[in-house]
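Lecture notes, unit on binding sites. The following record was shown on slide 14. It pairs a sequence with iron/sulfur cluster.
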Amino acid sequence: MRQVSDDLSGSPEKKEFCGLFGIYGDPDAVDKTYFGLHSLQHRGQEAAGIASSDGKNIQCYTAMGPVQRVFRAGSGILDKLKNPIAIGHVRYSTTGSSKAINSQPFFLEYSRGQVAIAHNGNLINAGLLRDEYEAYGSIFKSTTDTEVIAHLLAKPTHVSNADPLAHVLNHLQGAYSLLFLFNNRIEAVRDPFGIRPLVIGQTEKGAYVIASETCALDAAGAKFVREVEPGEIVTINDDGLSSRFFVKPGTIRPAHCIFEHVYFAKQNSTIFGENVHMFRKKVGRQLAIEHPVDADIVIPIPDSGTSAAIGFSEQSGVPFDMGMVRSHYVGRTFIAPTQDMRELAVKIKLAVVEEVVRDKRVIVVDDSVVRGTTTRGKIRSIRDAGAKEIHMRVSCPPIKFPCFFGIDFPTPEELLANNRNMKEIKEFLGVDSIGYMSLDGLLACASLPGDHYCTACWSGKYPIPVDVSVNKFTMEKYQLRMFNNDQ
Ligand code: SF4
């Protein structure tokens, strides 16, 4: 029987992608990886896994579900993995279907020994590379782009290269922050554009930690040291930390995903040199300058709209209040048999505080609007609770283009702003007014120069040339094949 699942997050139209954590030389490495992954849970709740090594042998455990369920208390799994070197991964599928076989770290044995790989991002040439390998008889066991990296690594002509990893990385195109656990070392990699974040920390006792966001360093008791640079390979082993570059530093302009700041990253994280909460508050203030409106209260769509709503309130002088509360006890993936039940569950996840919004002119701040169907549902709930006027303010520009670098937006035709003007968007959402943050305004809030960010989902300007016909969707035929094999 096929299970029906639904996404009950605050913003279910854009799926998070993946989170990475690694630690070297700590007797509690596996437990710390568990806590690190827990703090990165917002980046993926579909599957989780940890691979650990005693310096000679790697053990790996992955399963479907959030971290707490995969490594449930009393299961003894963490004890069995106990080793001083570990990497971990939380996943939301962006490439490859939602199956246990696609969970990471991806483990393999090849001519040079063992390796476990954890990946955040999306390779835009994975389909082409896979086609090439399959034509020569290679057999793939998953539908992820990460397995393509494993095949590249194991290829005899690559293995014999002076620096096999650097050689392999030069074959990859797209977004990738990667952790490789070899028997006696961790190698951490960031793509030449630095699209996804990756940071280095260190514990009091000197163990090095690598994580997608600084919130995971805090969870493991580590202090921030620096970011892994775009195009850099960081090696951590018994000799400490060393670095080399697989592209010449400074030859490629960075293209950090600014959507990480707008929505994905956790508020207490510092990424791309800036705290996420402070950035969002700045954006909220700018939004109030660009789209002022007379109103009685400002409410956020929690949690990702909260920081921007505080900034909006500070700038406009309109009082902030919690007109919606989010339940953190409803699982993100919920098996609901009917649409009615799923809608009910969404209402439990995000409930309106009637006493706050009744008879009020309400400004609603959200981080983004993708398809618009979820936002429309939330607006209807606020209206049903008695709001007199609803003014929607969105802390990023209208999303018009797909992301090929790891964010799972729907097809362009499904994007609300793809071919609608502001009047049509306002009518679709059922609001009294709508105001989106301008792209210039958003970039002005960021600490790095504007051309150091990817803004493609709003501007259509991709930092890496993308051929839609052969890139992201090439992997879909493999997913389809897996699906058909399941019937
Ligand atoms: S297209 Fe948008 S979501 Fe994707 S990497 Fe660029 S800014 Fe981020």
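Take-home: The first strand starts at residue 5 and ends at 7.
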